């Protein structure tokens, strides 16, 4: 029997804040695996607030998890191609990726967990998978009283203290639009995809490519 985490998100783009909570939650709770599930268009975000297409966001998540044997990506939401609620996604991922006896957890940031009452069927979701509330700067998980009152399965919510990293996808998109560097805020492979494809208004010129290749060849020689 192993513990498996499902980490759903828009990942528009995936960034180091996501990677750090995936790693630290996996360690704290002894996960054998973490399955990242990039969303199509999530029901709580309007289509226009999602800036990169599902395939680009999927490729970025794939690049981010490369090299970590515990981490993988699942295409289920991308392939379904319509907004999906976590209560629909989790059973599908369990069916596709699970082994008998696996114990399932849904990983989420504290900001999302405190809004859990606006999700579809939160109690049923908590039956399908325990929910991990990873700390995030600016959000208080010490006060979840409103959830305790409303949810039968409140005891299936597990707060996990993570290194607080104040990075958001919104902030990264803003920086790129202003021509600022987001290097090291996102994994290297994600940074490359953003610039190769000119996502979020990122520079897609030869200078940027040469600058990157210069430092990449330095990395290979080291
Ligand atoms: P946006 O700024 O576009 O809302 P985001 O940075 O919150 O995006 P999502 O893809 O929506 O990224 O996040 C997926 C999950 O990761 C959510 O549960 C969110 O709470 C959590 N998360 C994102 N960034 C952080 C962070 N820096 N620290 C902790 N949790 C985070």
Q: In words, what does this structure look like?
A:
The protein has 222 residues and is of the alpha/beta class. The chain has a single domain (3-166), classed as Rossmann fold (3-Layer(aba) Sandwich), CATH 3.40.50.620. It is built from ten helices and six strands. Strands 3-2-1-4-5-6 form a six-stranded parallel sheet, sandwiched between helices. α1 (16-29) links the parallel β1 and β2. The longest helix is centred in the C-terminal third of the chain and has 16 residues, at 206-221. It is globular, with a radius of gyration of 18 Å. The model has no long low-confidence stretch (mean pLDDT 90). The structure holds adenosine-5'-triphosphate. Adenosine-5'-triphosphate binds at residues 9-12, 17-18, 21, 108-109, 111-112, 134, 136, 165, 167-170.
Helix-strand string? EHEHEHHEHHEHEHHH
Let me know the CATH homologous superfamily: HUPs
Shape: globular
Total count of helical runs of at least 4 residues: 10
Biggest sheet character: 6 strands, parallel
Considering DSSP H and I runs of 4 or more, what fraction of the residues is helical? 40-55%
Identify the CATH class: Alpha Beta
Query: In the CATH hierarchy, what is the architecture at level 2?
Result: 3-Layer(aba) Sandwich
Distance between the termini: 41 Å
- Beta-strand segment tally: 6
Count of discrete domains: 1
Instruction: Indicate the low-confidence ranges by residue numbers.
Output: none
Structural class: alpha/beta
Task: List the ions, cofactors and other small molecules found in this model.
Answer: adenosine-5'-triphosphate
Q: Taking Cα atoms only, what radius of gyration do you get, to the nearest Å?
A: 18 Å
């Amino acid at each position: 029997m192993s513990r498996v985490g499902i980490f759903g998100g828009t990942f528009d783009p995936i960034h180091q804040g996501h990677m750090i909570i995936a790693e630290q939650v996996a360690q704290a709770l002894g996960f054998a695996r973490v399955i990242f599930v990039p969303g199509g268009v999530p029901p709580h975000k309007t289509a226009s607030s999602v800036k990169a297409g599902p395939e680009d966001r999927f490729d970025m998540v794939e690049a981010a998890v490369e090299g970590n044997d515990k981490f993988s990506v699942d295409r289920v939401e991308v392939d379904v191609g319509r907004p999906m609620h976590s209560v629909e996604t989790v059973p599908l991922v369990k069916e596709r990726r699970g082994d008998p006896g696996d114990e399932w957890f849904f990983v989420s940031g504290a900001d999302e967990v405190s809004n859990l009452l606006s999700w579809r069927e939160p109690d049923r979701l908590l039956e399908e998978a325990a929910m991990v509330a990873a700390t995030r700067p600016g959000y208080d998980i010490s006060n979840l009283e409103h959830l305790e009152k409303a949810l039968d399965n409140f005891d299936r919510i597990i707060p996990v203290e993570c290194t607080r990293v104040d990075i958001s996808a919104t902030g990264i998109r803003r920086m790129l639009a202003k021509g600022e560097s987001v290097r090291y805020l996102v994994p290297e492979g994600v940074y490359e995809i953003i610039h190769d494809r000119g996502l979020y208004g990122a520079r897609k010129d030869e200078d940027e490519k040469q600058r990157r290749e210069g430092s990449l060849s330095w990395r290979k020689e080291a």
